[in-house]
Amino acid sequence: MSRHQPTRPADRHAFDAIIDARSPAEFAEDHIPGAINCPVLDDEERAIVGTLYHQQGAFEARRVGGAFVAANLARHLRERFADQPQSWRPLVYCWRGGMRSGSMVQWLRLVGWDAQQLAGGYKAFRRHMIATIEALVPRLDLRVLVGATGSAKTRVLQQLALQGAQVLDLEHCAQHKGSLLGALPGVPQPSQKNFETQIATVLERLDLARPLYVEGESARIGRLSVPVPLVERLRAAPCIEIEAPAPERLAYLLRDYAYLGDDPEALAQRLAALTELHGKETVQRWQGWARTHDLAPLFGELMERHYDPHYGRSQARNFAQWEQRQRVAAPDLSPTGLDRLARAVLDLESNRPAALTLQAQAAPD
User: Fold this and answer.
1) Which of 170, 180, 173, 225 is nearest to 194 (CA)?
2) What is the pTM of this model?
3) Catalytic residue IDs
4) For residues 206 and 136, what is the distance between their CA atoms, to the nearest angstrom?
5) β-strand pairing of 90-93 with 17-20
6) Contact between 179 and 149 (Cβ < 8 Å)
7) 239 closest CA partner among 325, 350, 163
8) How far apart are alpha carbons 192 and 213 in whole angstroms?
9) Which of 35, 17, 106 is nearest to 70 (CA)?
10) Closest Cα to residue 132, out of 202, 185, 66, 63?
């Protein structure tokens, strides 16, 4: 790629490395996947330069900032870039493709590397991610996995991926299981921007001629919002229902949420959110089980009294093709059973007979 042509976000895969020259805080909020953070100004330095700019003007900010930039670039040359060969071709970006990435590109070129600057910086990349979602989502050939709580839908997605299917695991992107108890201990959710970046990055790699399997999520996963075009596409897509018996679902939940027993008080506090819906007496009983590590009766009643009663109505309300859904029986949610279950789901697509597949309620698409 010629150094005289602007480098666009879609061109980023052609480079040996992608370098984010922004501060660590900016990088943490969102960044180009695979980028390494080599800031020319750290968070404290960036704040100092910004204050100088507003209080004393551009010259003083550039004078002090230039010293910071020079010191940081020297350190990166000694440490992060020291082993790179002459043929190394990095792509560098900052917030909007300005002085921070420009200064790094100049120094890298002086050394002899064919460094390029991302035109428009992170802001251009962000626009590219949004445009990718808007352009590709309407073209997706979705298959939406639905099922009552504890049906192991996320694990089925993972097995489908292992068997070569295309999947979009929204809960993995969101770092949240999508339910009242879905927050992962010690694992913060990403920013909304990073959540959308992950989704768009998956979409970029898809073969649009093949089906994409995705779980039937609500419009929010924890504190994150699923992009509106994707929510609309999910609601209109064909559904595949995982039908697991209640005892098997309970056993799966006890395995999959076993870590909730590690902090019984935190679990009890989360259950308090259900007081208005189920009453103080019921929730206090559930909190008592949480505090004494009795997860089996707790999860059993949560299934029976909270999740299951509203399942069918909510699915019919949210998915336009709910009445025409295909069904797959799931008598075994062990790892071996999940492997067979994923194969049965794939058999629906190929129209091969599957031992676990019940008769579809409507003709295949």
Assistant:
1) 173
2) 0.91
3) 94
4) 9
5) parallel
6) yes
7) 325
8) 22
9) 106
10) 202
User: Number of H helices and number of E strands within the chain?
Assistant: 16, 11
Nearest-Å Rg of the Cα atoms of the chain is: 25
Q: For residues 149-178, b (16+ Cβ closer than 10 Å) or e, as one string?
A: bbbbbbbbbbbbeeeebbbbbbbebbbbbb
- Burial (CB < 10 A; 0-12, 13-18, 19+), residue 281, is exposed
Instruction: Give CA angle at 5 (116, 23), nearest 5°.
Output: 30
Cα–Cα distance for residue pair 165/154, rounded to 1 Å: 14
Are the C-beta atoms of 169 and 273 separated by less than 8 Å?
no
What is the C-alpha to C-alpha distance for residues 213 and 234, in angstroms, rounded to an integer?
10
Half-sphere exposure (Cβ direction) of 222: Cα atoms closer than 13 Å: 20
Residue pair 222/178 in contact (Cβ under 8 Å)? The answer is yes
pLDDT digits (tens, 9 = 90+) for 200-221: 999 999 999 999 999 999 999 9
Parallel, antiparallel, or unpaired: how do β-strands 224-225 and 220-221 relate?
antiparallel
pLDDT per residue as tens digits for the range 79-96: 999 999 999 999 999 999
Count other C-beta atoms under 10 Å from residue 45's C-beta. Answer: 19
Half-sphere exposure of 191 (CA within 13 A, CB side): 10
Q: How far apart are CA 127 and CA 130, in angstroms?
A: 5
